[in-house]
From TrEMBL:
Annotated region (Disordered), positions in chain: 507-549
Species, as recorded: Streptomyces lateritius
Signal sequence extent: none
Residues in coiled coil: 164-221
Protein name (record): Lipopolysaccharide biosynthesis protein
Transmembrane stretches, start-end: 27-47
Keywords assigned: Coiled coil, Membrane, Transmembrane, Transmembrane helix
Amino acid sequence: MTHTHVNAVEDDEPELLRDQFRQLLRYRAIIGAGIGIGLLGGVWFGVSNADTYVATSQVVLRAPVNDPFNPSISQDKTLNMGSERQTALSSSVAERAAQKLGWTGTLGKLQKDLQVTNPPQSQVLQFTYTADTPQAAADRANAVTRAYLDLRQKQWTDLRATMLAGQQKQLDEVAKKHDEKTKELDRMPDGAARDAEYGVKTNLLNRINELDARISQLKALDMSPGTIIRTASAPGYSDGPGLPMSLGLGALVGVALGLLAAWVRLVFDPAPRSAGDVARAVRAPVLGTLPRGATDVLLADEHTDARIAEEYRSVAFRLAYDQRFADRRRLLVVAPRGSNDAAVAVASHLAASFAETGKDVLLVEADLRDPTLAGRLRAHAATAPRWSSPAETEEGGWPTRRRLTVDAGESGSFGLVPGERVRNVARALTAPRVTRMIAEADSPNSTVVVLAPPVLNYADALALVDRVDGVLIVCDPRGVHRTDLQRIRELIAGAGGTVLGAVVHTPGGRRAAKRSAATRSIGRRGSGGGRSRLPAQADAESEEFAAEPEQIILGDGSDTVALRSLRAENLRTGDIRAGDR
């Protein structure tokens, strides 16, 4: 026999990504909510921008210079476009524009829909105004543009007037000194003193000429602050993307938002996200993934999908080829916590699968707190087992000499040791008779499957681990936390056992849950020794169970028979017939 790998195989990165994407689809409600929010936002954006119009005007700026054609004069150094943009957005410009428009509202409302931008590497200011009507957008854009140019022209003109006044004042003072010096020279006789004063007069005259030149230059400046190169016109269509485009953008944003929210939920989800997470938590392979509702019945009948039976067969064969199980042929089937129905179904199906391969199978119900198998399986009495003697039977307790045979249809039959309510569960589980009962697996071609209560509910399974060291965990990934699986593995390893693998399943719908509840209820009444049935009813049920199983044709032309199970309506409450095996 070959040895199966017990360590979880690390998936490569692409497989992990695919697995995470598949896990994201588990949160369809979150993704749907994100898409819904995105669509609502798209509708709001489309409706709110349906009646918005944008008009644009452009102005190329210039600074007053003496010679605009002189290449040595750089406009970039003369103009600061950042400062000009802030000036265009100032309240001074808004006041002038409001006067031109006859604006009755506040300046803040007028400035709210105005945008001024400066294209890179240019002396151009672009005025963009958004309004409810096309004409209003064009009028306001043009008004703001003209108000800005008027303000800049006034600022430059006021600056030139100030400079001219200063230059003229200096000129008047120098001219007065020049006139005084001329009169003084006319009265002075020729000589060295007169020559010196004449030099002073010449300097004053040069200063007068210099100031005259400056004043002439200032008066000759072109004070135009810029030129409108694009006049705003009424737009012929709204600026909004439209309702269809808004819905499309909203849907895309909603998908991204939903996936992000689902990913965050996935990251903080304590439950295993996949079979790989289960394998990593228990450090053992996932031996099978059961179809939905596969654990709602005990054995598959002719009305059940054959995939369920084949999946249980697959799990049984994987266990059979595991060297650790093949050496001792003891299997402990447990669930993490809560309901034990899934473990009951897996244990019964595995017992039938092993019996189908020709094994002498003994299914032991070690659940001494809520035993139900005797009433849920079609069983009848068998001969006294080897591990029980009359003396021990008289002492009472579990297990007694009561051993049943379960008919699994075409799969054959297997032995069943049903559980019984006892006062001291720990003493019953550690009794020598239990050790001898489990030791039946030492016989050639024998297999013992032990069903125990959930590990995290009771310590019953840990009391059996030293004798049944191979453990199979049955869990629903959506109903258990990763920390629970890790704790189970640590408890089993601490008790001296080994986790052979895990079987994951998905619960069925409400109908299956009701059927399972009815099954448990009938089973409890049957195990409690209910009244015997009428003969006619027993005969009718016997004929129903005797129906032929469905023949399934495989790909190679051979046929097989699906494992049979009992449905809730077919369960027997007192069908323990006397007879030998």
